[in-house]
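Suppose a classmate hands you a notebook page containing two proteins, each written out with its sequence and a corresponding row of structure tokens. How would you begin to make sense of it? This section walks through that situation. The first entry is reproduced here exactly as it would appear on such a page.
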Amino acid sequence: MPLQNYQYDTIMREYNRRQAQNRRIQEEHQAEAYEKIPRLREIDEEVATLSARKVRALINRQESGIDDLRNDIALLSQERTALLLSSGYPADYLEMPCTCPICQDTGYVGSQKCSCFKKAEIELLYTQSNLKEILEKENFDHFSFDFYSDTITNDSTGLTERETARRAYNLAKDFVAGFDNTFENLFFYGDTGVGKTFLSHCIAHELLESAHCVLYFSAFDLFDFLAGSAFSRKNDTPDDELIFDCDLLIIDDLGTELTNSFVSSQLFLCINERIMRKKSTIISTNLKLEDFSATYSERTFSRIASNYRMTKLVGKDIRIQKIFLGGK
């Protein structure tokens, strides 16, 4: 998904700020060097005059004298460099500095985004996802099956806890692998602490690394935000639209918030709108399926059941297990 206009503007404002700062530095360097070495100003003025003559000659296709102009400019540049070095300055002291030498702090190389722009893109998306710090620890590289029993089985499926976790893990990996080509939604459910949120974070990490727009909200924070948006008269907030249009929306711990008619209607609106736009959503909840339907209405549950991959995780609370293992 391309950046939203306001996201693109955020990044470009940083490039503009950087360029303005670099121009100020260049002007300060010039003023200092011109005062100390007056001949530098004369050289720059002569180079500017000769360069203008060369451009006019090229435009008028006057081939004679072009080589002489080039040679004169080259000699002046050599003199300029020698004066700077002999006075203790680096050879590029009068050039405008830049953070990225590839794009000269423009963000683009030709018509293509520079690598520094792509890095800024990912950094912005991480920051706006609400997940920046936690994903350093919660990602596929740190997912462990050791917390799931390989002997205790689920009566309804016949699979062990570990086999169930591995199935959910593989589902999450496949979800990422096919994200750009297949529209899918995931619904993780099960008891507290069995890895639902962790798996959601694993997916978020991978998609953010590939510059997708991911937003994470706890259920409480999402409905609090939607309530503020619904009852506000301000229509210029881009985040509201982004909830419906981001590449991936993660709604965590659904069922822990105070549920009322507004929450139920907003959940249906959010789910339905994203399905209509073919924008993927991940929902995690501690609620049993029958309780979920009773809490949020059969209409909402029907929409989820027909458009989401329903995946149950089982096991003992991993957070408690870690406490007994000394926080490892």
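The notebook's second entry, a different protein, reads as follows.
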Amino acid sequence: MTVYFIGAGPGAADLITVRGARTLAACRVCLYAGSLVPRELLDACPPDARLVDTAQLDLDQITAELLRAHEEGHDVARLHSGDPAVFSAVAEQMRRLDAAGVPYEVVPGVPAFAAAAASLKRELTVPTVGQTVILTRVANRATAMPEGEDLATLGRSGALIVLHLAAKYVDRVVAELLPHYGADCPAAVVAYASRPDELIIRGTLDEIAGKTKEAGVLRTAVIMVGRTLGAEQFRDSHLYSPERERHVC
């Protein structure tokens, strides 16, 4: 028996990977975050699969479900929104499985920031403008940020910053980034990326907070701040340059 941590994608049911869909269809047990994972994905589960909504479960209860499936000899699809690599809380689950000797695999998915960039029709790394993307969040009543990873420190890089779980704190985000990025820096908020109710908010750093609050966006959104969001005049990349030496085998 194996637990498969599957990235369900950012919201649209058809953005799960082929591998993720095939794995889901083969598992007799499926644990999913009911508030984040599209219900249509559950239609891919076997008709007799046991479905467990983890929205109201704590880590101990989730672990108990995984161990129960292990004892019964059933593979488990553990559906997480986006990609398991970032802000998914899979590390603590894998640690529990390691301690219990339960095998697991990770199936990557489309992360929310990639879906947001697609909706904005923007490449986040643009030649001569910006080649670095920082994925982060802000500290709140939940998990504190490690020392040196506060926005004021990260903002000194001038790199494109993508903030998850931060729409509710957009005023603080703007206040901490303004000294480093300037009032005219392009910014965007994408809520429910890839879903039918997707909402895109564009503006400059000094106006994005007001627009976000006016739209009533509080959660399920990413905030992006950086010059690549508005880049128009930039040098073509070396990748496809006619001056690049190409060898024909």
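A careful reader of the second entry would note: Helices lie at 18-26, 59-72, 90-100, 112-120, 151-154, 170-181, 205-215.
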